[in-house]
Request: fold
Amino acid sequence: MEENNDRVNVLIIAQASRFRDGLKVIVQALNWVGNVAAFTQETAVYDYVQRYQPALVIFDVDDLGSVTAEEVETIKTTCHNIKCLAIIDRAQQREIAQAMGADVVLLRGFTTELFYHTIRTLVIAHDGTVPVTGSLG
Reply:
């Protein structure tokens, strides 16, 4: 993975799946995103966070083995301005996601447009700069 200082880095924490792969493809298509990594192993997550200081972490609450509240807290402590987007399968998981440190929660079934606008808004909140708009590729 190459470092690119004028773009934001994104970390996806979820079990390997088509869904995770799809999220990664969408995020990689954004011209204001630099590195995108998708992990399940805790040590790889921490190595990435320390090296690339991502602006955004996307995690799947349904994959209970993927991330814990303590891991999200550690990531937020390491990268003070980092924003967290949780993806849930059921509305009842919203409180769990918020307790884990999610800044925003999306229920699966969201549109690509909503996903794009959500991550763009979170990135603006991260550092105050506005990513280039209208750019899915």
Q: What stands out?
A: The chain has a mean pLDDT of 83. The first helix runs from residue 18 to 28. The chain has five helices and five strands.
